[in-house]
Amino acid sequence: MEKLNWIKDVFGPKLEVRRGAEVVGSIQWQNMLSSKAEAVFNGKTFFLKREFFLSKLEIYDGKDQSLLTSVMVNLFNPKSDVILNGKRFELEIKNFWQSRWSWKFNGAEIISFTSNGFVTKEKGDIELFSACSEEVEILILLGLFVRNQFILFMLLLLLLAILLIF
Questions:
Q1: How many Cβ atoms are within 10 Å of 35's Cβ, its own excluded?
Q2: Which of 58, 88, 162, 165 is 20 to 30 Å from 107 at the Cα level?
Q3: How far is 49 from 37, CA to CA, in rounded Å?
Q4: Residue-wise DSSP of the chain
Q5: Which residues touch 120 (CB under 8 Å, ≥6 apart)?
Q6: Residue 31's domain spans which residues?
Q7: What contacts 24+ positions apart, CB below 8 Å, involve 16-21?
């Protein structure tokens, strides 16, 4: 099992993935509300995009701009599927606070994410239980992109609630 860490300023445009002190990946948005991001993982470039209402997330190859996969996220359903390289992977949100989520393949957990901070920085761990590296890089980036969209949605709901109160 391999363990990575991730960190992002709550209102910042960049998320980093680290193996110890070494940065192995990142996701960079133009700004906090941007629907597009550029990601790098193990030297490979990817582009991420979401629809306006946060339901459909896509990841593209950075070289030829081809769509690698997309996931439809339903805030009220903790499970979503993606097809990547002809294989079906399942994203599962494990708790109400969305602080634990994972990717499964054939019912077995292959990547587990946890979030353990949320004051000025959001941070957490990624545990890898599989060596299928081609898909793992894409699934890690997509899993973190999904998490960021949930946080963005929750912050927008909080802002809306505050505006309605005042």
A1: 15
A2: 58
A3: 6
A4: -EEEEEEEETT-SEEEEEETTEEEEEEEESSTT-SEEEEEETTEEEEEEE-TTS-EEEEEETTT--EEEEEE--TT-SEEEEEETTEEEEEEE-STT--EEEEEETTEEEEEEEEEEESSEEEEEEEE----HHHHHHHHHHHHHHHHHHHHHHHHHHHHHHHHH-
A5: 9, 10
A6: 2-165
A7: 17/41, 17/126, 17/140, 17/144
Asked whether residue 53 carries a pLDDT value surpassing 70, the answer given is: no
The two tokens of residue 108 are: 């077995």
The pLDDT tens digits for 85-133 are: 899 999 988 876 678 889 999 999 999 999 886 655 688 999 998 766 6
Number of domains within the chain: 1
